[in-house]
């Protein structure tokens, strides 16, 4: 009898080793939780147009967090980010590791943790395949989450989960752990949803998309040298009338950046200047944006030297610091061909191009910035991203 008891109780060394592994499992859970909270924040910033043009983890075309976050695969269901469920998963794993700290709960907690880890590993491999095979773009932070999931699985396996034949399942304890895991999942998704600053329902997005597409499409000329982003053969062309000093234009540009990330081969954005500045916009009765004309000229000339997108992003990213001469400073920082660039800024041809954009905007009844024309359909102002997605998905339908 004594030998049976001694056999059923692990040695002190074994208990110490188990506690170290369980502590590492808890630490692993906290790391995964933190990564998923950050990814969820990034998801909502991308969708709401409050993120910058490039995240720190945008290393190359094949390693771009923004492309992954803007893709439909970043959503789980109901427009909720997969990462918020991932945060709930890690929170449930953390709770399970706390249960495992108790010697009497350990056996059932380890077996329950193995189930959680197995499910998480399957999801990790599935989404790794999506990044590799469908998006052909990786998210470094997502890969970090995958590594953490695999680490958790290895740690749980090292605790040597026991089979159900040797020790029947304790349903009471398992029910408690299941209830706590579900609560952790719901709590995580609910709390992180509050980070969505621009909530709009799917039905509202569809209604606004229909409203835009019901406007009669207009024909807009497309000069060969117009500043643009995206392939010329794209199925959808978005004409953007904008002002580099307009705060709403900055939001619109950031939203468009997310649209381009989601539909990289199907969309072309053409930029038209509509500066609210009397220096080049004579119909303005006052000048709310005193360096808008200078910025417009800089953008056109950056296009002439093949660097429009870089300066376009820089002007909007640092909009708050714009002042006379700042656009030229940005061009120097970007190492543009300065003699050619400065000659272009001072040329009459550039002033004429800006005047032509303003004149065309007037003919199209552009009354505020930003104004967009999506395959000719007019959209006033920076609509929420779900509206853009709804419009583009409708236009892409065969």
N-to-C order of helices and strands: HHHHHHHHEEHEHHHHHEEH
* CATH level 4 superfamily of the largest domain: Glutaredoxin
According to DSSP, the number of beta strands is 5
Biggest sheet: strand arrangement: 1-3-2-4-5
Shape: elongated
User: Which CATH architecture of the largest domain would you pick?
Assistant: 3-Layer(aba) Sandwich
Percent strand equals 5-15%
Unreliable spans: 1-7
- Count of structural domains: 2
Question: N- to C-terminal separation?
Answer: 76 Å
The quaternary state of the protein chains shown equals single chain
Question: Could you walk me through the main structural features you see in this protein, from its secondary elements to its overall organization?
Answer:
Helices cover 60% and strands 6% of the residues. With 398 residues, the chain is α+β, with helices and mostly antiparallel strands. It has two domains: 2-193, de novo design (two linked rop proteins), CATH 1.20.1440.130; 202-396, Glutaredoxin (3-Layer(aba) Sandwich), CATH 3.40.30.10. The protein has a five-stranded mixed sheet with strand order 1-3-2-4-5. Helix 4 runs antiparallel to helix 7, helix 5 (106-135) packs antiparallel against helix 6 (140-158) and helix 10 crosses helix 13 (338-345). The longest helix has 37 residues, at 12-48. The N and C termini lie far apart (76 Å). The model is unreliable at 1-7 (pLDDT under 50).
